[in-house]
Design brief:
InterPro entries: Peptidase_M15A_C, Zn_M74/Hedgehog-like. This is Peptidase M15A C-terminal domain-containing protein. It comes from Candidatus Phycosocius bacilliformis. This protein has 160 residues and is an alpha+beta fold. The chain has a single domain, classed as Muramoyl-pentapeptide Carboxypeptidase, domain 2, CATH 3.30.1380. Helix content is 32%, strand content 17%. The protein is built from six helices and six strands; from the N terminus they run H-H-H-E-H-H-E-H-E-E-E-E. A six-stranded mixed sheet has the order 1-2-4-3-5-6. The longest helix is centred in the middle third of the chain and has 20 residues.
């Protein structure tokens, strides 16, 4: 009888406090507005699972960008925090499906968006917002690509 050894590499589980290998829960819930206004920004267990999915997808984004550091500027927003920052009432941030980020070592948001679109990564919404990128991985997975200029949204990616 011959025994086969499974040599498939095992990915280590994220460290405590981490949603994935490179993204922490702290960076996905941190908010100056929440601190200033004393708004609890604590995800429930259902949102935590969705945040883990978002972080796993952000690991893919990080790979697409050549493994440069990706800085999350806004992740989960409780309904009260979302309202305080003027977010859309049906924002994917509330469900833990979205994040806003920058990756200065890769380049400006427009180049980040072009790289993500070219990669074929599945997402719900990708928005180039001038100084940051919004990406969501909500259940609809529409592959919607938008540009925001002057507070208005336009289909596709537009030059600066």
């Amino acid at each position: 009888m011959t025994t086969t050894i499974d040599r498939t590499p095992v990915k280590p589980a994220p460290a405590p406090g981490m949603l994935s290998n490179n993204f922490s829960l702290a960076e996905f819930v941190e908010s100056d507005t929440a601190m200033r206004r004393r708004i609890a920004n604590v995800p429930n267990s259902a949102v935590m699972e969705r945040l883990k999915n978002t972080a796993a997808n952000m690991e893919k984004v990080r790979e697409i960008l050549g493994n440069v550091p990706v800085h999350v500027t806004s992740g989960y927003r409780s309904p009260a925090l979302n309202k305080a920052v003027g977010g859309s009432p049906n924002s994917d941030h509330i469900d833990g499906d979205a994040c806003d980020f920058r990756a200065p070592a890769f380049g400006p948001p427009i180049l980040i968006c072009h790289a993500i679109v070219k990669s074929g990564l599945r997402f719900d919404q990708l928005i180039e917002e001038g100084t940051w990128v919004h990406i969501s991985f909500g259940p609809r997975m529409r592959q919607q690509v938008l540009t925001m200029r002057g507070g208005k949204y336009f289909n596709g990616l537009r030059p600066i």
